[in-house]
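Work Package 4 report. The design task specified in the project plan requires that, given a folded chain encoded as structure tokens, an amino acid be chosen for each position. We show below one input record used in the internal validation round.
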């Protein structure tokens, strides 16, 4: 019997002026990964037009 259930995909987007929010976002991403999710972390300040 095969399990065809896809793992969840999570995007953690954050903006952090002083690094505090980035620290929290990293903790959220780590928690999602430990639960089996495929996680992408995105710093909003790094997004450019082609993205």
């Amino acid at each position: 019997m095969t399990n065809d259930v896809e793992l969840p995909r999570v995007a953690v987007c954050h903006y952090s002026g002083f690094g505090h929010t980035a620290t929290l976002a990293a903790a959220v991403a780590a928690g999602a990964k430990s639960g089996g999710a495929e996680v992408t972390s995105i710093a909003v300040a790094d997004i450019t037009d082609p993205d």
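The chain has a mean pLDDT of 92. Validation will be extended to a larger panel in the next phase.
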